[in-house]
Amino acid sequence: MELYFKGDECLYKPVEEDDEEASTGGGGTRMIMRRPQSEIYRNFATEKRVEQREFMGKKYLIVDTLKILPWKLTTETKKILNYNCVKATYNDTLRKQNIVAWFTDAIALTAGPSRFSSLPGMILSVDVNDGELIWLATKVEFKKIKDEDVKAPSKGELIKEEDFRKKMEEMRQRNGGGPTRIIRN
After folding, report:
1. Assign residue 156 a region: left if phi > 0, alpha if psi is -120 to 50, beta otherwise?
2. Which parts of the chain fold into alpha helices (H)?
3. So what's the pLDDT on residue 33?
4. 135 pairs with which residues across the strands?
5. InterPro entries, from UniProt (predicted)?
């Protein structure tokens, strides 16, 4: 996943990868597993969030306002990609997740991976539930990007966040309600 940002806007989207890989020879098997594609657009000036999610082969479009997460800033620091970062924590009671984020004020945009934002700088790392899910920036590049690289997704059935969650829960129940784990970005 990549995070593009320009001015007051950012877009978090999948990396476009080349599906054609050179064969290594031999009689091996190649299995390709793809995660559902999602894109998250945020406009901090208008406080708008547009998220395109894929579920069961269908695209959905969720339009909402930006949520200000109640982060708790700490005094703990560490370096990520040569940026001085500060630790922030957040307890998401709805998703039952303890979240640790590391952000840098050297990049003055309150953005980060997936749904995470609203810290006083760019989030370079997020850890959910002590390693259950981790995002870590592997490279930061400052280069000129086109306006179309940071535009809101527009394809999919318009749906409210709560209705989308209900659809996912109904599918989980239909599949036996067992230990299925759905990772929501």
Report:
1. left
2. 161-174
3. 44
4. 126
5. GLPGLI
Q: With contact defined as beta carbons under 8 Å apart, do 81 and 104 qualify?
A: no
Could you please report the per-residue DSSP string of 120-178? Answer: SSEEEEEEETTTTEEEE----------GGGG-----SEE--HHHHHHHHHHHHHHTTSS
Q: Say how far apart CA 180 and CA 169 lie, in whole Å.
A: 11
Q: What is the mean pLDDT of each run of 10 residues along the chain (185 residues)?
A: 86 69 49 63 93 89 91 98 97 93 93 90 95 92 86 92 86 67 52
Three-state SS for 172?
helix
Question: Phi and psi (nearest 5°) for 170?
Answer: -60, -40
CA-CA distance, 52 to 153, in Å (whole number)? 6
d(CA 65, CA 91): 20
- What lies within 8 Å, CB to CB, of 43 at 6+ separation is 8, 9, 49, 152
Q: 152 is written with which tokens?
A: 């809101």
Q: Which pair of structure tokens corresponds to residue 79?
A: 């370096």
Look up residue 49 and give its amino acid. R
Distance CA(92)–CA(185), nearest Å, equals: 13
The answer to whether the pTM exceeds 0.85 is: no
Q: What residues does each domain of the chain span?
A: 2-15+34-174
What are φ and ψ of residue 80, in 5° steps?
-130, 120
Q: To the nearest 10°, the Cα dihedral for 168, 169, 170, 173?
A: 130
